[in-house]
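Tutorial, part two.
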Amino acid sequence: MDNLMIDMETLGVSVSSPIISIAAVFFDTDGSVGKKFYRVVDLKSALSHGQIEPSTLAWWMSQSDDARKIFFDPSAASLDLVLSDLDAFIKEEGNSESVKVWGNGPSFDNAILAQAYRNFGISLPWQFRNDRDVRTIVDLARCLKHIDPLKLAVREGVYHNALSDALFQVQCVSIAYRALKG
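Running the prediction step on this input gives:
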């Protein structure tokens, strides 16, 4: 599998936002899912490596209890350890030269994650030219094929849990890809 869906939960929307969890799922455009990665970042570590945005913090306070459990996860680790673990996961499960890394929005998941790697002086575990965008392919399916993958995909799990969201986004990309392919 050479597609990797990334989703993160953060305390902001800029590239300097504190990352509080990261999920990654290898997948094929036919919808099959491979290995999964999910880690929660220790809140103290997240806050020491990012700039909180008050509007995002207020938004988090309005989310479900299940979504907010992330703030009390006993398995949380430092951001540098989580990034190293993700790096190892990508290199073990895929080819960092050819893996296509999908995120939700060109300025969000991939960009924030790339900035975090830069901040720690860790090489990005994929080629920058292999960044892909969920929102773009979903919009293409809507515009060109009049199909809305967001309405056709079946959401499971907790909204705003990075792994649940990544799996939902895999479905959306797969639906869009099949529609566009004909």
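Residues 134 and 169 are 7 Å apart (CA to CA). In part three we will examine how such features are distributed along the chain.
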